[in-house]
Design a protein that fits this description.
The protein is of the alpha+beta class. It has three helices and 15 strands. Helix content is about 20%, strand content about 45%.
């Protein structure tokens, strides 16, 4: 039996090994990471009233945070609330203190496959603070806000304060061009920002009215109130487009630091060519060694 009898199988073996190595490369890449389409829905929220106030009682010997929210709702799970009053305990001699009263106070958050929307409607509202039981901080006729995020469309935010506005007993005219400052001697001061709206490519937010408050009636330190207050805030986030799912591909076993192919002169198929060449070299060397043993 001559050496050609051994060389032919060796060549075939090398060819088979090379083809296997080249074919295994793309197959390994395909199995290294899986694309996951997100199934998240959109989001929406709405709140009639949210406060972040500090109340100091009896010459600041007692500090009570006035953290109140009225009709706060969030979706994906659609919800709505229509409570008309918000009360706080512990600041009025142990009796519940009414912070907000209104004839209409509704907040709604709705999410579907293609739409997320938050909305607020407040009518004939009166807001009070500790230390001012007979004088309203703010009285409002109608306040609305809405944030709408629809798949394939630019998000929209709107907010309005309609009708008369009274602050610390003074009738005021709000301006969208900047804050309105109201100062009442012996009572305090309030800064009002009208209709704040923000939109991005997939979110929207609207607040009908934001107030910065500093109140200390007659400087008696009976109730010193400072902080912020937000009326009628709505937000939304656009639901993902089913026709354009977001993928998250994370190859497994990837090296911690990759060499830039442009710097090495390689390409994405370089590892497979190298693997094929190595298989060819091993197979060829094995065939030569086997032929030499047969000759001897």
């Amino acid at each position: 039996m001559n050496s050609d009898t051994f060389r032919m199988p060796a060549r075939r073996l090398a060819t088979l090994a090379t083809a296997t190595a080249l074919a295994a490369g793309p197959a390994a890449l395909a199995g290294a990471g899986t694309a996951h389409a997100t199934t998240d829905q959109g989001r929406a929220s709405a709140v009639v009233l949210r406060t972040g106030l500090d109340v100091s009682l009896l010459d600041k010997t007692v500090n009570v945070p006035l953290a109140v929210s009225l009709n706060e709702v969030q979706a994906p799970r659609s919800a709505d609330r229509t409570a008309l009053t918000a009360t706080l305990d512990g600041v009025d001699g142990g009796k519940p203190f009414s912070v907000l009263g209104a004839d209409v106070a509704s907040a709604k958050a709705t999410v579907s496959d293609s739409l997320a929307e938050g909305s607020v409607h407040l009518a004939h509202a009166r807001l009070h603070l500790p230390g001012l039981p007979l004088l309203s901080l703010v009285e409002l006729d109608t306040v609305t806000s809405k944030a709408t995020c629809e798949t394939g469309r630019q998000p929209v935010a709107s907010a309005n304060v309609l009708g008369a506005v009274t602050v610390l007993g003074k009738r005021v005219t709000l301006s969208a061009g900047g804050p309105t400052d109201v100062k009442v001697p012996g009572v305090g001061e309030v800064r009002l920002d009208l209709s704040k709206r923000e939109t991005t490519s997939n979110t929207a937010a609207a607040s009908a009215l934001e107030l910065k408050i500093s109140v200390n009636p007659l400087k008696l330190n009976v109730a010193d109130v400072e902080g912020t207050l937000t009326l009628a805030k709505s937000t939304c986030e656009t639901p993902p487009d089913p026709a354009d799912p977001v993928t998250d591909v994370k190859p497994q076993g990837a090296p911690a630091k990759e060499t830039k192919l442009a710097e090495t002169g390689g390409s994405s198929v370089t590892p497979y060519v190298v693997a094929g060449a190595a298989a060819l070299l091993l197979a060829g060397g094995g065939a030569v060694l086997l032929a030499r043993r047969k000759r001897s």
